[in-house]
Design a protein that fits this description.
The protein is mostly helical. The protein is built from 2 helices and no strands.
Length: 73
């Protein structure tokens, strides 16, 4: 039973770390793209927001799964 809590905590932590790294790399690449092509700001921003929302969705799903592991045990 205690291992379920440990696994959920590790899973939640990895999910948050992965999402943070993913959004950080996404923002860095977007800033570089905007600096290289300032006229494409709108397209780059739109694609960045969509990708960030998808990353956040995956992170939220990971957190929900970790919570369900704890609740169902």
């Amino acid at each position: 039973m205690e291992f379920a809590y440990l696994g959920a905590a590790i899973g939640a932590g990895l999910g948050v770390i992965g999402a943070g790294l993913g959004i950080g790399l996404l923002a860095a690449a977007a800033m570089e793209g905007i600096s290289r092509q300032p006229e494409a700001v709108g397209d780059i921003r739109t694609n960045m927001i969509i990708a960030a929302a998808l990353i956040e969705g995956v992170a939220l799903l990971a957190e929900i799964i970790c919570v369900l592991v704890v609740v169902t045990k």
